[in-house]
Design a protein that fits this description.
The structure is a homodimer of 313-residue chains.
Chain A (H helix, E strand, L loop, with lengths): L2 E9 L3 E8 L4 E8 L4 H19 L1 E10 L2 E2 L4 E3 L9 E2 L1 H9 L3 E5 H12 L8 E6 L3 E7 L2 E2 L36 H14 L14 H9 L3 H25 L3 E5 L7 H14 L9 E4 L6 H12 L4
Parallel strand pairs in A: 1-4, 4-8, 9-12, 12-13
Antiparallel strand pairs in A: 1-2, 2-3, 5-6, 6-7, 9-10, 10-11
Helix pairs in contact in A: 1-2, 3-8, 4-6, 5-6, 6-7
Chain lengths: 313, 313
Amino acid sequence: MKTTVAAGIDIGGTNTAFGLVNAEGTLLFQSVFPTPDTPEELVQNVFKVLSTAIATSNYQLVGVGIGAPNGNFYNGTIEFAPNLKFTGIVPLAAMFQEAFGVSAVLTNDANAAAIGEMQFGVAKGMNNFVVVTLGTGLGSGFVCNGNVLYGHDGFAGELGHTIYDYEGRLCGCGRKGCLETYCSATGIVRTCQEWLAKETTASVLRNLSTLTAKSIADAAAQGDELALKAFEFTSMVLGRALADTVAITSPEAIILFGGLANAGDLLAIPLKHHLEANLLHIFKNKVKVLRSNLKEADAAILGAASLIWHAND
Amino acid sequence: MKTTVAAGIDIGGTNTAFGLVNAEGTLLFQSVFPTPDTPEELVQNVFKVLSTAIATSNYQLVGVGIGAPNGNFYNGTIEFAPNLKFTGIVPLAAMFQEAFGVSAVLTNDANAAAIGEMQFGVAKGMNNFVVVTLGTGLGSGFVCNGNVLYGHDGFAGELGHTIYDYEGRLCGCGRKGCLETYCSATGIVRTCQEWLAKETTASVLRNLSTLTAKSIADAAAQGDELALKAFEFTSMVLGRALADTVAITSPEAIILFGGLANAGDLLAIPLKHHLEANLLHIFKNKVKVLRSNLKEADAAILGAASLIWHAND
C-alpha cells in the first residue's frame, strides 16, 4: 500500500521551503530554493521536485497546503504581497491544484507556522497564542479559542503592518512606519544602516560588505556597542507593539520564529523587559515569550501540511 | 405559570443600568442609577429594585448576567478597574449569586454590548466584528469566528489601553498615553480643556461651567471651530488605532457605541476618513463603520442577560 502524504509549502520573501508530511506529522522529504520571481516558475519548480520525490518513494499525494505572505485562506490567493515579487492577486491554490491534480489550501505563512506550533511545537495544548515571524517582514498568526484567526476577509494577523511611527520608514506596502520596517531581519539591518550613517561610533559592522541580521547578531554577541543598541531598540519597538497586541487578544504566549528570532537571548531578554514594562497591569507577568523549538523551516512546512491533514478538525 | 427572566446588569464608570429580559430578548423591566462607590452597595441597590420588580410581576429569575469594565469572564471578577471606585479584585459574580440565589455570569461591559449587538442589533449574522464603547473610557468587545474573544486570561479587548502616545496623557491605569485618554467621552473633554488653556481661539465652550462630550458635540453642531477641531483630532487618533486593530483582527464592521458615539456624523464621518487613510491596502473600503441601533442602555443590558440565555450556544 502507498503511504499517503500531504505537501507543505512555505513561501518566504527570500526562500521557499517545502516537503512531504505523513498523517502523523513526520516530514518524509524536504527541499528549499530561493523564491522565484513569478508564481508560474514557483509552481513549476515545486512540482518538478515533489513529483519526482513522490514517484521514486511510491507515495500518494492527498493535498497541497501552502503558507505564504499575504495569503488569503478564504480565496486561496496571495494578494499584493509587499515582500514577494509577485504582483496583484495570485490564485496560487488553484495553480497548485491544477499542477498536482489534488486539492490545495493556502493561508498566511505566519498562520501556517502557528498551526505547526500548535500541532507539533511549543504551543501544543494552548488555545490562545500568537506566533510572530521575524524574517524578511514581520508576520503574525493568532490562535484564539483554539482556532486560527482569519477574520472576515481572511487577512487577520497583519501585525507587521500596524504603524509604529507615522513619520517613519517607508514600507513595501507603500505606507510609512510599519512595525516590520523596524522589527524583522530586514528592519534591524535598516536600523544599523541608519545609525552607521548618522553616528561615528566604532563598530565591526563598518567593516562588513553586507549587513545581515545574522552578522549584527554575531557582532552583538562579541559586545559590539552599535549592534547591541540595535537589538535594544528593536526589542523596545517590538515590546511596545506586543504589549498593545496582548491588550487586544490576551494570549497565553508569544512565540518568536524566523531569522531574527535566531538571535536568541540577544532579542528575547530585552524584549521580555520591554514587553513587561509596557503591559497593562492585569497582564503583567502572565504572558510567556517563547522561541519555536521546531527546526527553522519545519514548523511552517508542517503547519502548511496540517491545512490538509487537519482540515476538518 | 411564572415568566422566566434573566437579569442583565451593565456597570459603567458613571451609571449602572439593569433590567429583566425574557428568553425572547424582550426587556420587561429596566432601571438605572449612578454607580455606587462600593460593590456591596451596588449589589444591595440592584437587589432591592429587582427583587421588588420580580415579586410584583410574578417573574421567576433564572440567572444574573453582568457586564462591567475590566470584567473577567473566567473568574467572574472585576479586576483593578481604573474607571470605577472599586479597588483591587472584586468577586462580583459570586456576590450577585449569593444575593439572588441564582447563578451569575460576568463579562467585560464591551463584550456584553457585543453579544447584545450580535443577538439583537446591527451585528446580527456577523461572525467577525468589534464593538467600541466610547463612554467614560474606551471599551472594546471582539467577536471572532462567531465567538466573543476572551483570550487566555479572560481580559481580551482592552483596546482602550493600547498606547497612542508614550509621552502622552496620564491614564487611570497608571500609564501614559492610553487610547482612552484621547478617544472617549472623557478624552474629548480633556482635549478641549488642553486647547482652551493653550489657545486663545474664541469658542462657546469658554462660557460653559462644565464641559461634557454632549456640550462639545452641541457646540460642534453649531459650527464652533474648537469643538469641530476636537472631533477631527479625536477621529484621527481613533482612526489610526482602529486601522491597526483591523490589521490584527480583520473585522467585517466596527460598531460605535456609548456617549461619544451619540455625536453621530460629527464623529463617524471624519473617523471613516481617517480609518480609510490609515488602512493597509488589502483592507481598504471593506470595513463598515456602524452605529449601534439599540437604545443607549439596551444593548448592554440585553447582552449581559444573553450571558444567561445563550450560555450554551
